[in-house]
Write a structure and sequence with these properties.
This protein is mainly α. The chain contains three helices and no strands. The N and C termini lie far apart (108 Å).
């Protein structure tokens, strides 16, 4: 019987030790359970944040791609416009050169006539020749100006002009 009592005391000690130990670890288990739940929540929030950031990055990338394409189209339009203007300047130079040649021929004709003319007619021819020389000088300046417009401007000069224009418009 002593053995049964001893066995009973031993079993009740083990059982009470288990229950007391189990009770003490209850807080630790609850803390672990909360930590796991918090970890899952944080993982879900991290995934949502990553998804949101990827969507924002895609939006920014698309916007920049559209802006770049618009800049390229604008540049292509400006290049086409410049080529049309340059071609127009070439046409003006050709037309002005033809007028200059005609003016030179007319001037030579008037000079020959003036040498053979007398008095009032000579004065009239001198006046007409002076007008032709002025017209010739104007045509020459126009040709030189149109040729100058086709000259490439160095980048540093262009940037300085743009900075001046921007500063002046503010």
């Amino acid at each position: 019987m002593n053995k049964y009592i001893l066995l009973l005391v031993l079993i009740s000690g083990i059982l009470s030790g288990y229950l007391i130990g189990d009770y003490r670890n209850k807080d630790a288990r609850e803390a672990l359970k909360k930590a796991l739940e918090t970890g899952k929540t944080l993982d879900t929030e991290r995934e949502a944040a990553i998804t949101r950031l990827k969507a924002e990055l895609d939006g920014i990338t698309d916007r920049h791609r559209r802006e770049l394409e618009a800049i390229r189209k604008s540049n292509a339009a400006k290049i086409a416009e410049w080529r049309r203007a340059r071609d127009g300047l070439n046409d003006q130079i050709k037309h002005s050169s033809a007028r200059l040649a005609a003016s030179d021929n007319r001037l030579k004709t008037l000079a020959a006539r003036r040498d053979a003319a007398s008095g009032a007619e000579r004065t009239k021819l001198d006046l007409e020749m002076a007008n032709l020389r002025k017209e010739r000088d104007d045509l020459q300046r126009e040709i030189e100006g149109n040729a100058c417009l086709q000259t490439r401007v160095p980048l540093s000069v262009s940037e300085a002009l743009n900075e001046t224009h921007i500063a002046g418009s503010k």
